[in-house]
Design goal:
CATH topology of the largest domain: Spore Coat Polysaccharide Biosynthesis Protein SpsA, Chain A
Radius of gyration: 20 Å
Largest sheet: 10 strands, mixed
Order of helices and strands: EHEHEHEEHEEHEEHHEHHHHHH
Structural class: alpha/beta
Number of domains: 2
CATH architecture of the largest domain: Alpha-Beta Complex
Number of helices: 13
CATH superfamily of the largest domain: Spore Coat Polysaccharide Biosynthesis Protein SpsA, Chain A
Helix content: 40-55%
Length: 327
């Protein structure tokens, strides 16, 4: 049985798939399996997977109709045999030493999960995605292992919520899943991990390369940005069930107001108007005095909502123009 299961959801990424697979089969660590979930690709992805599977027996292919990223990852977890699990999106790739360093870290620390830094690949070049901020993180955490109890609630907002750039103990996440039929699926998955982990370890080196691309499972995301409202409800329920809701009460409000507004600003047409209406419905009657005002008054998002709540959609569009002018 392989030590590590690498789960790769695949959907119409023929342009990048070989780079992803090459980065996996050329790892310095070799005791792993590659679980490729072909999520109804209509391009040449399946042929590429079959060609690579002939070259490397660690590659296992499972095909399903197009159900989305969450369903593909959930299927991957069901097929995984390893003690540890890593998620790699099929248009991204790993550093050659990623699995070796992650596995060593997990084994030495007996962690529930660990995270590393990542690089973002953008049209204008590559940049380091340093979340949490190294200087701030190392000022708070002096040991190789920590958990959320060791940090204040606000530190939750500083973490990278992605499922990738992490390694998980399979036994730790066996009862977790990604919400199917919705995008932004990483957010509730990370919340479950963050709240339940007794041991979180880290390697503050960039081991993952994230490609911000339009040709992936997330390619039609814009029209589905309204999902953020349902995702935020799921996250609130996760925090409530954990018994830690009161600690994070204000921070969750800040996070959810910000994510809802940002996604609304990124949409257009009738979707934007619908999301604006949901902003008002969701946050328009909140009694902010019931939250920690010392935190809220330090957040720009609080003042943004003071401007847009109970305003007309036309006023909101003027506000949007003002924001873009300041960008």
């Amino acid at each position: 049985m392989a030590k590590v299961s690498v789960i790769v959801p695949v959907y119409n990424v023929e342009k990048y798939l070989d780079v992803c697979l090459d980065s996996l089969i050329n790892q310095t660590f070799d005791d792993f399996e590659i679980i490729c979930i072909n999520d109804g690709s209509t391009d040449s992805c399946l042929n590429i997977l079959r060609q690579y599977a002939k070259l490397d027996r660690r590659i296992k292919i499972f095909s399903q109709k197009n159900l989305g990223l969450s369903a593909a990852r959930n299927a991957g977890m069901r097929h995984a045999n390893g003690e540890y699990i890593v998620f790699v999106d099929s248009d991204d790739f790993l550093s050659p030493v990623a699995l070796e360093k992650m596995h060593t870290n997990m084994s030495e620390n007996d962690s529930d999960f660990m995270f590393s830094y990542a690089y973002q690949i953008l049209p204008q070049g590559i940049s380091l995605w340093e979340l949490p901020n190294k200087k701030e993180f190392t000022a708070h955490i002096k040991t190789p292992v920590f958990c959320e109890k060791d940090l204040g609630a606000e530190f939750y907002l500083k973490m990278l919520f992605s499922a990738w750039a992490k390694m998980y103990k399979k036994s730790f996440i066996k009862d977790f899943s990604f919400p199917e039929g919705l995008i932004f699926e990483d957010l509730p998955f990370f919340a479950q991990c963050w709240l339940n982990a007794e041991k979180i370890s880290y390697d503050l080196e960039p081991l993952y390369f994230y490609r911000k691309s339009s040709s992936s499972i997330m390619s039609d995301a814009g029209k589905n940005f309204i999902d953020i409202f349902e995702i935020n409800k799921i996250i609130s329920k996760i925090f409530e069930a954990s018994g830690k809701f009161e600690k994070y009460r204000t921070i969750l409000l800040v996070s959810q107001m910000e994510s809802s507004l940002v996604r609304t600003l990124e949409t257009s047409g009738s979707t934007k108007r619908e999301m604006f209406n949901l902003l008002q419905k969701t946050y328009g009657n909140i009694d902010f005095s019931q939250y920690d005002m010392n935190i809220l008054k330090r957040k720009n998002i609080y003042y943004a909502y003071q401007t847009i709540l109970n305003k007309s959609y036309r006023d909101f569009r003027h506000f949007e123009t003002h924001l873009k002018g300041r960008a």
